[in-house]
């Protein structure tokens, strides 16, 4: 009878061993090497250093003189960074912050500490923003860190209109400058921006950079410049430069007629958590009113839903909070165990990389919350309220995100605890509304002020700020007995009620109703499209299939009119939980609509399937 040995893994022993090594290091027991950097001594164990560093492994095992010495002087090494690396070698804990990470990366690169390099890379990629992206691009290029370089380059391309004014941009190498001005992915609406950036870089040091004039200009899309700009620019050049410019522009001719990515942007309604065929799965899509097309955005990671969303003035899209599914096993004595869906509230925070059509994780919020109201105010993102499992106190919490340092801080809590609220920003103040209450948060004082009450009380309403006024519309009215009454959100079954708040007068008034058809659910979403106040609305009769429309408000006439009826074959039934925001996206970076319209809308014989491009295609459900 054969026996098979069982291997038992004792994780406690591994932890204990690391703790003992740390104790030996702190008490300088059995140390066999002293590293000397900038006059500071670091007594260590060769075995520990060689385990984490290829540099030390080669030093101690090569048979060279250093392998027999008890004291080794290290040059070109930062003492503070070496201390962080030694601490990591003995504990597995790496202390990284914005002030030390770049020097730490440089030291880890010299000492060939791969784990520290990877952690620093991940940290830097996560911390890339408009303020540091140009500098990190040069840093990554210097150390041949391709992953960091590509992430930094995408941010430079995305923020090009602002970052080319930075000193770090003027310090770029000629290779990086040319790589940028030749990129198809620059987020610029006019080629004049690229020309101005290129000329600023050349003029920064005309003596040493005049040799690059022709090469740099060869990457401009001269046909995209206006004739006036071309003429003025050429006439203003020194005589000796004109022939060089002509040569450079001649070289650019093969690139004529190819627009930069930013020139292809379309303003779209971004629809978060649209219903799909799978009832447990939500989709993220966007609709272009201009092209009347639907595009698919990548869904948030981990089946995240019930998030808050915001689009900043710089067109950055963020989502925060929400729930993720958790599989739990429910035991039953009489029946087999089965999996049941459960959900966990999270504090996730993501930025949308529009060029890559993917969500990038940023520093999570301090509190987990579902459906928080997100707004951009005076340079910060605020996460307000939301529902969570933390009770009334947590529902009142408000936190603020600093995009430059990727950090959240708590601010004054809401005066009331609401499971649902809507927030807008006017004159750098945040107005939060729920039921018939309105509160205003003033960032400069950090306090909340109660404003005038509304005439009606409603939940699940939508709001938008437009020309010093707040338009509060749709939703479900709440009766005196606190019961929700479905029909109350219409007038005579043919319009949607609107209330308007005058910020200067602190006064609510009944506004012009939206002449939408009767609808059976509270799906009315206020949005601002092309600097016009609009609503994206679901127009249906009871038991009918979903139909959508966009209504626009005329401030002068104080009237709403139908701007666009959306074909039911363009947008399917989005459900009732979806939310809307508006941002500018690149159609070429998105997935097209999953449904391809047939050559003939209906087959002659009325069948549900027909042949298209030699394939049988089913008529989509509408």
UniProtKB/TrEMBL annotation:
Keywords, sorted A to Z: Kelch repeat, Repeat
Superkingdom classification of source: Eukaryota
Any Pfam family the entry gives: BTB
Listed transmembrane segments: none
SUPFAM superfamilies on file: Kelch motif, POZ domain
Residues of the BTB domain: 31-98
GO term, biological process aspect, one: proteasome-mediated ubiquitin-dependent protein catabolic process
Protein's name according to its UniProt entry: Kelch repeat and BTB domain-containing protein 2
Source lineage: Eukaryota, Metazoa, Chordata, Craniata, Vertebrata
Gene it is expressed from: kbtbd2.L
């Amino acid at each position: 009878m054969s026996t098979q040995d069982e291997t038992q893994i004792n994780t406690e022993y591994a932890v204990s061993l690391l703790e003992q090594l740390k104790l030996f290091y702190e008490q300088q027991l059995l140390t066999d090497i002293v590293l000397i950097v900038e006059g500071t001594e670091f007594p260590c164990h060769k075995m520990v250093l060689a385990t984490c560093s290829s540099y030390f492994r080669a030093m101690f095992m090569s048979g060279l003189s250093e392998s027999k010495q008890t004291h080794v002087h290290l040059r070109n090494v930062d003492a503070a960074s070496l201390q962080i690396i030694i601490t990591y070698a003995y504990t597995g804990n790496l202390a990284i912050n914005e002030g030390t990470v770049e020097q730490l990366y440089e030291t880890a690169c010299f000492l060939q500490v791969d784990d520290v390099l990877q952690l620093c890379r991940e940290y830097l990629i996560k911390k890339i923003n408009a303020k540091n992206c140009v500098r990190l691009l040069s840093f990554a290029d210097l150390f041949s860190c391709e992953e960091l370089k590509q992430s930094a380059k995408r941010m430079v391309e995305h923020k090009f209109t602002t970052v080319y004014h930075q000193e770090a941009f003027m310090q770029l190498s000629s290779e990086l400058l040319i790589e940028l001005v030749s990129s198809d992915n620059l987020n610029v609406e006019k080629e004049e921006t690229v020309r101005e950036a290129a000329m600023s870089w050349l003029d920064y040091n005309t003596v040493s950079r005049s040799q690059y004039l022709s090469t740099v200009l060869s990457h401009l899309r001269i046909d995209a410049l206006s004739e006036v700009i071309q003429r003025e620019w050429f006439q203003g050049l020194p005589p000796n430069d004109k022939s060089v410019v002509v040569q450079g522009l001649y070289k650019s001719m093969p690139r004529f007629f190819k627009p930069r990515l930013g020139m292809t942007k379309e303003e779209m309604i971004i629809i978060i958590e649209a219903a799909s065929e799978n009832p447990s799965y939500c989709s993220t899509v966007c609709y272009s009113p201009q092209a009347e097309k639907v595009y698919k955005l990548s869904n948030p990671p981990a089946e995240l839903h019930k998030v808050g969303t915001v689009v900043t003035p710089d067109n950055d899209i963020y989502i925060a909070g929400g729930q993720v599914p958790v599989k739990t096993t429910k035991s039953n004595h009489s029946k087999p165990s089965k999996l049941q869906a459960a959900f966990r509230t999270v504090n996730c925070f993501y930025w949308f990389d529009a060029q890559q059509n993917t969500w990038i994780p940023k520093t999570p919020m301090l509190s987990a919350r579902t459906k928080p109201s997100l707004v951009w105010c005076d340079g910060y993102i605020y996460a307000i309220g939301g529902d969570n499992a933390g009770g009334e106190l947590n529902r009142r919490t408000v936190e603020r995100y600093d995009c430059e340092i990727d950090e959240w801080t708590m601010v004054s809590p809401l005066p009331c605890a609401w499971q649902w609220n809507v927030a807008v920003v006017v004159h750098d103040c945040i107005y939060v509304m729920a039921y018939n209450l309105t509160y205003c948060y003033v960032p400069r004082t950090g306090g909340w002020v109660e404003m005038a009450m509304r005439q009606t009380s409603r939940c699940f309403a939508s709001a938008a700020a437009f020309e010093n006024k707040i338009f509060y519309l749709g939703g479900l009215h709440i009766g005196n007995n606190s019961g929700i009454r479905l029909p109350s959100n219409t007038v005579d079954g043919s319009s949607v009620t609107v209330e308007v708040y005058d910020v200067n007068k602190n006064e609510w008034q009944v506004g012009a109703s939206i002449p939408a058809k009767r609808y059976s659910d509270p799906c009315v979403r206020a949005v601002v499209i092309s600097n016009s106040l609009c609503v994206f609305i679901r127009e249906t009769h009871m038991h009918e299939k979903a139909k959508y429309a966009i209504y626009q408000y005329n401030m002068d006439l104080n009237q709403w009119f139908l701007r666009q009826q959306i074909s039911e074959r363009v947008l399917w039934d989005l459900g009732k939980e979806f939310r809307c925001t508006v941002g500018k996206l690149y159609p070429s970076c998105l997935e097209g609509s999953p449904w391809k319209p047939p050559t003939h809308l209906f087959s002659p014989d009325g069948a549900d399937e027909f042949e298209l491009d030699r394939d049988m295609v089913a008529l989509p459900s509408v």
